Amino acid sequence: MAGPSGRGNAVLVAATYLTVLAVLVLPVLLVMAEALRAGLPAAWRSLLDPDALSAIRLTLVVTLVAVAVNTAGGVMAAWLVTKYRFRGRGVLVALIELPISVSPVIAGLVWLLLFGRQGWWGGWLERHDIQIAFATPGILLATLFVTFPYVARTLMPLMEQQGREAEEAAFLLGAGFWRTLWSVTLPDARWALLSGILLTTARAIGEFGAVSVVSGHIPGLTETMPLHIETLYNGYQTVAAFAMAALLALIAMATVLLRSFLEHDFRKASS
C-alpha cells in the first residue's frame, strides 16, 4: 500500500493532468468540434475563401521573414552578450528581454506613433508615398519586435556554458568570424537554435495584439490569420472562424510538438 507521500504524489499527478486537460486540451477539442459542426466540406470551403487565403498567405510570409531576421539577429545578440564583457552588457540583455515584458498592444501603438499618418515620421512617409502603418511593413515590424527574444534567450545559456576557448583556438588557427560561428559555435548549439526558431515561428503565427494595432484590419490586404478569425467571428460566420482557428491551432501544436521532440532527442543523444 502506498504511504502518505505516495498518495500525495498520485493526487498531485491527477490534479496536474486534469488541469492540463481542462485548460489546454478541452478548448482545442471544442474548437475542432465547432469547425466541423457543418461538416468538413463547409470548413474546407471557408478556408478557400479569397480573404482567408490572403490571411494565410500574409501570415506565412510575415512569419518566414520574421523568423529569418530574428534568427540572424538572435544569434548575433547571443554571441555578443555571452562571449564578451563590455560596459552596458546588462542594459543590452534587458533590451533583448523587453518584448517579453511589454504588452504587444503597447508595441503596436509605438509603431503607430512612429509611422502612422499623425506619427512622428508620418508626414515624411506620406510625402514620399511610403506606407508602413496599415500595411505589410507595419505588420512585419510588429511581429519582429514581439518575436525577437526567443532565439537569443534560447541560445544564451548554452553559449555561456560553452565558454570562449574553442572560438579562440579557431581564431588562432586562422579561421574568420563567420567560419568560427558556423563550424565551431553553432554545431554544439544546433538544438537550442532549432528550439528558438520553432518558438519564434509559433509566436509569429499567433501574434494578435501588436499586429491588430498597426494592421488596420483590412480584409484581403492586412489581415493575418488571428485577425481574420476575429473578423469572421464578429461577422457571425462561426464555422469559418472556427475553421481558421482550428488550422491555426494545428500549426501551433505541430510547431510545439516538433520542438518537444527535438528537445527529447537532444537529451537522449546527450545522455
TrEMBL record:
Q: Name the InterPro entries on file.
A: CysW_permease, MetI-like, MetI-like_sf, Sulph_transpt2
Q: Which chain regions cross the lipid bilayer?
A: 12-36, 56-80, 92-114, 134-152, 238-258
PROSITE patterns with a match to the protein in the record: ABC_TM1
Which terms are listed as keywords in the entry?
Membrane, Sulfate transport, Transmembrane, Transmembrane helix, Transport
List GO terms (cellular component aspect). plasma membrane
Q: Which GO terms describe its molecular function?
A: ABC-type sulfate transporter activity
> Quaternary structure?
The complex is composed of two ATP-binding proteins (CysA), two transmembrane proteins (CysT and CysW) and a solute-binding protein (CysP).
Q: What does this protein do?
A: Part of the ABC transporter complex CysAWTP (TC 3.A.1.6.1) involved in sulfate/thiosulfate import. Probably responsible for the translocation of the substrate across the membrane.
What is the protein name stated in its UniProt record?
A: Sulfate ABC transporter permease subunit CysW
Organism for this UniProt entry: Gluconacetobacter sacchari
Q: Which gene encodes it?
A: cysW
